[in-house]
Amino acid sequence: MFAIHVSAHETRDNGVRLIHPFATPTPPGAPNGAAYMDISAGESPVTLIAASSPVSDVVEIHDMSMKDDVMRMHRLDKLEVDAGETLKMRPGQGKHLMLIGLKQPLKAGDRFPVTLEFADRDNITLEVWVQEANEGSQTADQHAH
How many whole angstroms separate alpha carbon 3 and alpha carbon 1? Predict the structure, then answer.
């Protein structure tokens, strides 16, 4: 058996650092998927206001919470990261990008583009890697230091 080491990837642009964008694989026929990343703000706050990708009809900013053992998701109009702070998106832990109306299943090993639209900054297009939840989370955590 061979061990495959995959390096994390990041994008730095205009005071924003985006660390290891990844999505989790989806079963065949699943209508939706989710993508995650860390967003770090430099010397000024960062506000994500929209996202898009050719792999789905719509990309929405979502937050997930648990109440009385029931998972609840709701759409956010924006995602704010204070200056000098990092927002970590992880499977099962709250904020994420919801890929609605997938055009095909997300398979481990695939990659696809997503464009992030920020308030008061240029849009940033980056590559999202499709990885199992634990692998993507661990790689992002190692790279964020």
Answer: 7
The pLDDT assigned to 14 comes to 74
Q: What is the pLDDT of residues 36-93, one digit of tens each?
A: 999 999 999 999 999 999 999 999 999 987 777 776 788 999 999 999 999 999 888 8
The answer on pLDDT for 129 being more than 70 is yes
The CA–CA distances, whole Å, from 101 to 23, 33, 108, 130, 137 equal: 15, 8, 18, 17, 24
pTM of the predicted model as reported, rounded to 2 decimal places: 0.84
Structure tokens at 131: 């990885």
Helix then strand then coil, % of the chain, to nearest 5: 10, 50, 40
101: left (phi over 0), alpha (psi -120 to 50) or beta: left
Instruction: Write b or e for each residue in 82-95: b if 16 or more Cβ atoms lie within 10 A of its Cβ, otherwise e.
Output: eeeeebbbbbeeeb
What are the backbone angles phi and psi of residue 110, rounded to the nearest 5°?
-70, 160
CA 48 – CA 134 distance, rounded (Å)? 25
61 vs 59: CA distance, rounded Å? 7
Q: Are 43 and 87 in contact (CB under 8 A)?
A: no
